[in-house]
Design brief:
By secondary structure, the chain is mainly alpha-helical. The protein is built from 2 helices and 2 strands. The protein has helices at 12-26, 42-83; strands at residues 2-5, 36-39.
């Protein structure tokens, strides 16, 4: 098992709550706590995040291409109608 530094912002309040509870229960002070998420295979986890990001990027690029092609088509048709 290994740990990944916590990066998911939706988890942050729960980690922070755990720190507040530990400070109160044990009488300690944590000025800059480090949050870790324990996983079985951190390399696989990072690779899956990378693949997911790449897929989202490619989908956005294809959608942007078709959107631009549609806007260009409409603009050219409009310009040709004005010319005729």
């Amino acid at each position: 098992r290994s740990g990944l530094r916590q990066v998911v912002n939706t988890w942050r309040p729960f980690f922070r709550l755990a720190v507040v509870q530990a400070e109160g229960m044990h009488g300690i002070q944590a000025r800059h706590p480090l949050f870790f998420h324990w996983v079985e295979d951190p390399v696989y986890e990072l690779q899956s995040w990378k693949l997911s990001g790449y897929k989202n990027f490619m989908i956005a690029m294809v959608l942007c291409f078709f959107l631009n092609a549609g806007v260009l088509t409409i603009t050219l048709k409009s310009a040709l109608k004005r010319r005729s």
